[in-house]
Write a structure and sequence with these properties.
heterodimer; A: 113 residues; seven-stranded mixed β-sheet; 11 strands; B: 112 residues; mainly beta; 0% helix; 54% strand
Amino acid sequence: EAQVTQNPRYLITVTGKKLTVTCSQNMNHEYMSWYRQDPGLGLRQIYYSMNVEVTDKGDVPEGYKVSRKEKRNFPLILESPSPNQTSLYFCASKQEEANEKLFFGSGTQLSVL
Amino acid sequence: SQQGEEDPQALSIQEGENATMNCSYKTSINNLQWYRQNSGRGLVHLILIRSNEREKHSGRLRVTLDTSKKSSSLLITASRAADTASYFCAPRRTGGGNKLTFGTGTQLKVEL
């Protein structure tokens, strides 16, 4: 089944403790992206990647890192999480062509205490 | 950044009624996509309309696009309780490459 898999689904951590949210897709998509969703602010793009070893900042990249060493994986790294990074995170992927639709993961609810 | 603004923010209707939600955007676009999000879950693609199209249908969904007004509408006919969700439009800006941005959505509630 074609899907984008995020893990974990829920995560509670404390300020400053490094964490990684994993994202994997099995559709051989070139493009992958991370979004965060906050009440009243909609979905905001954090980082995206056009292909292996090609990443770029989205609208709210501060405090986040990503890597794209393999085509299928696009982990989101929070080196030193802070409470304002408490949010619902989504990974998404699609074919490179601009008209293609995005496939979303099920989301990761992160709470930073 | 270019993003669609959905209107209304919230909509409550009875099962069987039609639901219409609107999207406005600011710049020229290549296409516009609509997505649905069930509570707390990932977005699911519903339909894509290209800038040279005026209307598109998919099952009970009808999407229109008016590029002169920079607006789109999504009509769900004969709504069901299972249509309860948030709906987002995502305009793809001309020259914006692969970037796809989302607004805050329309929260639709279909009551029995």
